[in-house]
Structures
1.
Amino acid sequence: MRKYVMMGVQGSGKGTQSAMLCRDLNLVHIGVGDILRWHVQQHTKLGAQIRRIMAGGELVSDDLVESVIRRRLADHDWNYGFVIDGFPRNGRQAEFFLESYDIDGVIHLDLPDSEVRRRVLNRRLCTRCGMDYNIIDDRPEVEGQCDVCGGQLTTRPDDTPEALAARLREYHDKTRPVLELFRRKEYVLNVDAQPDPQTVQGVIRARFGLPPYRPEPEMPVPSGA
Ligand SMILES: [Zn+2]
């Protein structure tokens, strides 16, 4: 059983790296953002609560996120382990998490704020299917149009330089204590998140002694190593 925590500022590729890590290792990806979105889309009771909070311009509280994650982990559908991203959000949650689960490692995707700005401010989002694009690195084939569903691409209203600066400040303030706590337990693997996703994934796997990432799905072959 393997259990990892993926940490990193927005735009650092947490979701992508988590999905890549889960794919052939049979790990379950527990992404806070995905779970919250699912509840909103499925019109659950919790989804209605989240929608109200967001409509009021508020952020979903740490306590609400914690109860969502506790419930998600209690499903115990992760026979081979999990990769969790978007949690823990503060020192108290990190302590609870360490006491309750046997963590194999914390992956900290390190990205300078200048690079976060470049990535996030060039981000475009499909209004129909939610696919992310970046007009510098990951351009759609037709400008302003989603490759997957043909939907219209827009900028998120909160992706302005001012809003991003505030989010970065908040992220650093909140994350520092969490990372410090994990560092004291010597769990933290710092990874430079600037190279392309496959290179980053390769570094993570090598450092944890995991089998190399295979980009294309193929038939399982007996490992000679
Ligand atoms: Zn789309």
Note: The chain has a mean pLDDT of 89.
2.
Amino acid sequence: MASDRPKGARAKLRGFILANVGRVLESDELRAASGNTSEWARRVRELRTEEGYQILTNNDRSNLKPGQYLLIDPKPIPAFERGISKETRAFVLDRNGFTCQMCGAVAGEIHPFDPTRRTRLQIGHIIDKSMGGGDDPTNLRAICSVCNEGARNLTLDRPSLQKLLIQVRRATGGDQVEILRWLIQKFPKQTAEITAAK
Ligand SMILES: [Zn+2]
């Protein structure tokens, strides 16, 4: 239909969905928000595929019913990441324990270097695309938005054990205890084994 302006409908839907982050939206609401276009579902799909908004459906979350939509994070996935499939993304995040592979920040927690933000994980390339790196999972890793913004083209190495120990030994006692607390929480089984062996 000539009067059915897709761009207008998409913008209306974008505005409506962004105003309702975290709330489950029903198809009827979305159709109405689009200006009652019959193409509303296609426009929602475009917001996902072309603009990178992670609008979840019952394909993504089993607690959503068919016809329900949910946007949790108002920030779209960056353009460079949209070519990576949902499955690959989920695989890489799971493999990396939902932890930024550069700074160790955990998804959803307050960011250790920027307490004003919650950690959002993105998928980054280990060898940058500009250096010939590919999109297969072996060249992908979880990386938080803070690190990603600072280091899009840097390839930082994991610190060596020796360097890491030097850093920990130089830290204050209070910080060392914090590290201990975190390690105990992360490795309960090993902690029990080590303390039992004493
Ligand atoms: Zn990070």
Note: The beta strands are 25-26, 55-56, 68-71, 110-111, 114-118, 121-125, 140-144.
